[in-house]
Model the fold of this input.
Amino acid sequence: MKDETRVAVVGCGPAGLMAATVLSQAGLSVDLFEAKGSAGCKFLIAGRGGLNLTHSEQAEAFAARYGNNAEIFKKLLAVFSPGDLRAWLRGIGVETFVGTSGRVFPKDASAHDILKIWIETLGKHGVVFHYHHRWQGFSKTGAPLFLPEDGTLREFPARAVLLALGGASWPQTGSDGSWAALLAARDVHLEPFRPANCGIEVAWSEHFRTRFSGKPLKNLLLRCNDRQATGDVVVTAHGLEGGPVYALSGVIRDLLGKGSPVPLLLDLKRDLPLERLKDKIAHRRGKESLANFLRKTIHLAGPAYSLLREICSPEDLQEPTVLAGCIKNLTIPVVNTRPLAEAISSAGGVAFAEVNADLMLRKLPGVFVAGEMLDWEAPTGGYLLQGAFTTGHLAAQGILKWLGRPAKP
Ligand SMILES: Cc1cc2nc3c(=O)[nH]c(=O)nc-3n(C[C@H](O)[C@H](O)[C@H](O)COP(=O)(O)OP(=O)(O)OC[C@H]3O[C@@H](n4cnc5c(N)ncnc54)[C@H](O)[C@@H]3O)c2cc1C
Done:
């Protein structure tokens, strides 16, 4: 039997959809509100690059990915873990597999397929979808207010509200962070939005920019303070993009924010120890060009060689010991991080101090928050979606507790 207690879930991203799943399975009447005309825009974008749903890493290491919030996530993930996520996906007919890097992907389904099955399942559980309904805050009685397409502000009578409005990157997907002003007006403390998992800006010369934009630099190591990451990066018109850059972008952003120098070092030959490299390039014959010599002796060519020329002085490149140092520790002159709108995710949002253990806002009893709108950040690798799924699940359980309803296992 359907319970007549109505709950409003706002935001049809992974966090909101997961919350609606838990609440509807517990028998509550769930209404899902979404500002856009369809659900899961960012989830679909994530699917374009291979939908990395979660990671197979052990619990302790997994939680550590959430940096300053590792302890909080340790507790949250104990309630809805990567294993629970995979089991739930299997339950709706989506098998997953662990890739060579330990990342978890859907086996045969696309992001579009998953979303379709998910929305159908929610419909079967009686969840009502209200698209083109932008949340606009609360009425005097505390009911959520929505602005539908006809432009008439409406109250929705709900016993509990779950806000899952996303972060502030990729605003074209609906996650535009405009909700922040509404919560700040209710005295909820928010940390400023900042780009996370983003590219960096480097002031390339016109020659390098036009010749090498879009070209990859393969199998290198990037280092910044005590952090390092390996893999391929791509030269862009603005600077550099790619996995290792994203992995270090948070540290780089914070250093830039403090006005500190950014010691970003790039190792173009990470498999060749410095001493061996020095031996190899110690004896260059007089007439041979440096480009030919490096290509033949250490297979350094194309954009990698040109990057050396771009950053190092001609004198440095002539001196073998200094040249070896440049190849192993090339200082990248970072100017900035790419803008928030382009970042894969955002840091900032509702501070954890503003919510209780059930993710209910302390200053707005009955209002819960989940997903990227909370102030956490994590690297790519499935940690972002897992964070959204887990907090959505947790906040829904918090609502059940708040309403005195037993949660279904
Ligand atoms: C290019 C790209 C690739 C990515 N790839 C991956 C990946 O492979 N693996 C991974 O783990 N993560 C990935 N992510 C990140 C992941 O997609 C997000 O972390 C995740 O979607 C966040 O979920 P969410 O539910 O918190 O918010 P969102 O998915 O952003 O959903 C929030 C929803 O709230 C709606 N909304 C906002 N304001 C209002 C309002 N006022 N009223 C009503 N509705 C509102 C929005 O329209 C939106 O539908 C990727 C992101 C990008 C941009």
Observations:
- Residues 10-16, 33-36, 41-43, 45-46, 49, 51-52, 134-135, 164-166, 169-170, 174-175, 179, 344-345, 371-372, 382, 384-385, 388 surround flavin-adenine dinucleotide (CB under 6 Å).
